Amino acid sequence: MDPRDEAPDRDRLPTLLGERVALRWLEARDVDGLFTLFGDPKVTEYWSWPAYTARDQAARLLESIHAHFREGSLYQWGVVLRGEDRVIGTCTLASIDRTHLRAEVGFALASARWGRGLMGEALAVLIDHAFGPLGLRRLEADVDPRNHRSLALLERHGFRREGYLRERWRVGGEVQDSALLGLLARERPRPSDGRRTTPTSTP
Ligand SMILES: CC(C)(COP(=O)(O)OP(=O)(O)OC[C@H]1O[C@@H](n2cnc3c(N)ncnc32)[C@H](O)[C@@H]1OP(=O)(O)O)[C@@H](O)C(=O)NCCC(=O)NCCS
Known about the structure:
It is built from 4 helices and 8 strands; from the N terminus they run E-E-H-H-E-E-E-H-E-H-E-E. The protein has a single domain, classed as Gcn5-related N-acetyltransferase (GNAT) (Aminopeptidase), CATH 3.40.630.30. The protein has an 8-stranded mixed sheet, sandwiched between helices. It is an alpha+beta fold. The chain is globular, with a radius of gyration of 16 Å. The protein binds coenzyme A.
């Protein structure tokens, strides 16, 4: 099965709606937002690359997001507050595997917005989409074990710690370990009330 067959429009990702956030297709107009996001060392402290220092890096990221979407290996949505246009984060399904029906989740939110449950909402919407219309059966996350915010977020959504890989990354000269977490569709906690579980596409 090709998860893209389920998308209403194969040329771009569908917009997914939470109560306060929307996950939408990233456009050329979002380069500044991506630069602000990934240029913040607080956001990239445990990321797989150091903070951006030039806007061009964000432009190349967007090109790469679109190229990998066309290949079908990566779906990366921009996170916006509903009713606003500016991208304040991204939410990702990477290494999408259509044979084994699994993918890796990733997320980043502007540091000024942390601590309000916004990424929790976005992640819930992403998981619903992955296990619903996309038909995936397993989601994985690779997290720096010191990244307690991220680990807490994933565990709140039912991810279990499944493994520990030593010295897996080398970022900005620093070697980092990985905690590996997994969530199976069949063990997903029931969606909480007050949150849409049906992805909504917009023109
Ligand atoms: C990890 C990250 C996405 C978390 O974003 P977030 O929006 O703060 O996360 P949550 O949705 O889980 O928010 C939870 C916090 O908001 C609080 N909160 C406030 N209102 C809330 C609400 N309505 N619902 C849920 N939580 C709420 C919670 O109590 C919790 O606070 P705590 O962390 O002190 O316990 C963010 O810290 C980030 O972008 N980090 C850098 C990038 C990164 O490391 N990504 C992961 C790589 S694997």
